[in-house]
Fold this sequence. Notes:
This protein is an all-beta fold. The protein is 0% helix and 58% strand. Strand 4 and strand 5 form a beta hairpin.
Amino acid sequence: VQLQASGGGLVQAGGSLRLSCAASGSIFSIIAMSWYRQTPGKQRELVAAITTSGGSTNYADSVKGRFTISRDNAKNMVYLQMNSLKPEDTAVYYCNARSETTGWPFNVHKDNWGQGTLVTVSS
Length: 123
């Protein structure tokens, strides 16, 4: 699975940005897609996730009510709409796709990562 993220940039506090992630390769194996973010000296943290079937979503408490993750399975795309941005949202955002392959006794899961896209929110 290959992932290409885009949409980062510089925005003022209170503004909006939409990140996009295009998936290619073994698309059929993807069971969920997520956005993570990372700032220098900190661990990468989960921002939002969505399953490819059913569309169940999960958000970090810090972004609930401001960010929305969505998917377009026909286009193999996942989006992160970010509203009411705050300076603390400044980070490199990474697209993640969790893929699953059949194994025994358990299926095998793999995390696939795209390159990061920088989001900078000025105060």
